[in-house]
Amino acid sequence: MSAKSASSGFRNWTPDRLPDLTDKIYLITGGNSGIGIEAAKMLAGAGADIAIACRNPAKAEQAVAEIDAVGEGRVESITLDLSSMDSIRSAAAECHQRYEKLDGLINNAGIMQTPQSKTADGFELQLGTNHLGHFLLAGLLFDLVEKAAGRVVIVSSIAHKFGKIHLDKLMLEKSYNPTVAYGQSKLANLMFALELDRRLKAAGSPVSCIACHPGYSATELQSTGPEGLLTMIYKLTNSIMAQSAYKGAIPTVLAAAGEEAVAGGYYGPNALGETQGRVSDASIARKARDEAVAAELWRESEKLVGYEWSFS
User: Fold this and answer.
1) At 96, which helix (H) or strand (E)?
2) Owning domain of residue 58
3) Would the pLDDT of 62 be above 70?
4) Cα gap 120→89, rounded to integer Å
5) Is beta strand 49-54 parallel, antiparallel or unpaired with respect to 25-29?
6) Of 66, 168, 206, 283, which is least surrounded by CB within 10 A?
7) 230: CATH
8) For the whole model, what pTM was predicted?
9) What is the C-alpha separation between 222 and 234, in angstroms, rounded?
10) Which of these is catalytic: 26, 99, 176, 182?
11) Structure confidence by residue, pLDDT tens digits, 282-302
């Protein structure tokens, strides 16, 4: 059974509702393509400064130029590989050198249905990149978000509804399936967001955590991870079912800067099984609202990445 985390009072949020974002800065992982770059352009168009974090400096440079063309704020890039704890720590240190605050940390980057592989630190690639990488990055940059009384945004997926957290075998080493691994990683994203929201509220923190999903949007995600038959299927469904990356980015922009978004909210498109359409409150699977599993996932995540969150 699914339920919505909030009733935010709107049924069709659009980016023209954004306030003036001059002097606000947003860091977006995976901001060089797909949902990330479209969200960056919308925020930049409202006056925000943008930092995109991605692995490939050449692609980052191209994206910076594209984003810069639609806004008047500062646009720059930071090298970040979410599959490497060393890279995450290096990127976080660079952020602390460059920025006094972050009004929004948008945890957007992700991979989908990849063949079995491990990160540089030995984690299953999809869980390591999609969840553990962002878990560590958000922890390391939390103080900068706190200084701005800003927002931590976690991008999940409708695929969370098909996921399961395998606490006894998170890395799926003996029974790997690309789709099972992806579902687990996106469920972990949403459970992290909801658990972070609970902890922020309990601590009386000025920071808000807001989650979102892009529905089914045509991006590089469907072509850079899946192999074989899945590639053929996505080529067909992208052409006849998917909405544009621009439309898929609207929930992310709402979560990051929309005045209507509420702490603990979860936003996404609401037509055709939440795959596309108008943006409002999205539904959350019951399993994602299991607080005991979320707390255990949090503890295990801290142990795996070697970082313990603290709230002032």
Assistant:
1) helix 85-98
2) 2-302
3) yes
4) 13
5) parallel
6) 168
7) 3.40.50.720
8) 0.93
9) 6
10) 182
11) 999 999 999 999 999 999 999
